[in-house]
Amino acid sequence: MTPRLVVQCGLPGVGKSTVARAVADRLGAERIRSDAVRREVVDDPTYSRAERDRVYRAMLERAREALADGESVVLDATFERRTHRDDAAELADEVGADLRFVRVVCDSGVARRRIREREDDPSDADVSVYENARERFEPLERDHATVDNSGALAATHRRVAELF
């Protein structure tokens, strides 16, 4: 069976990790989360462009290893820049994986509330990070599915089941 590479895209607080976890469970895939990778490769995060590039390179290298072993992978990150999405697509081409982009969206008020209420979460994103990401997020011009994670978890899981 051909391994799959699922690339999650979306702003902080929209529920990318919730969706990524559901997708990974459905596919029996490995989930690679940027927040966890950042904690492993960066001692004192500054969220600079160079640091983000380093985190994405590390994520893609881990994905490459899993895909080469025939495992499916879900990449859980904002993927706000086209170049990072292009790098993921290039990886899928190189290893012969089926590629799927998923944009996770959420009502801005809900996202802000979720960010403020986070506890025991590896993400350092606060509302100011959310606002900055909204300004920087480059349009997702690739074919993709959208999951609106504004409502009940059951509705999100139904949408994931439709897609996967």
Describe the structure.
By secondary structure, this protein is α/β, with parallel strands linked by helices. The chain is 52% helix and 16% strand. It has seven helices and five strands, in the order βαβααβαβααβα. It has helices at residues 16-27, 34-41, 49-68, 82-95, 108-117, 127-136, 153-163; strands spanning 4-9, 30-33, 73-76, 98-105, 144-148. A five-stranded parallel β-sheet has the order 2-3-1-4-5, with helices on both faces. α1 crosses α7. It is globular and about 40 Å long. The two termini are 15 Å apart. The mean pLDDT is 92.
Please summarize what this structure is.
By secondary structure, the protein is α/β, with parallel strands linked by helices. A five-stranded parallel beta sheet has the order 2-3-1-4-5, sandwiched between helices.
Kindly list the characteristics that best describe this protein.
164 residues, alpha/beta, five-stranded parallel beta sheet, 7 helices, 52% helix, 16% strand
Share of residues in helices: 40-55%
Overall shape: globular
Unreliable sequence segments:
none
Q: Give the topology string: H per helix, E per strand.
A: EHEHHEHEHHEH
Q: Enumerate the strands of the largest sheet in spatial order, edge to edge or round the barrel.
A: 2-3-1-4-5
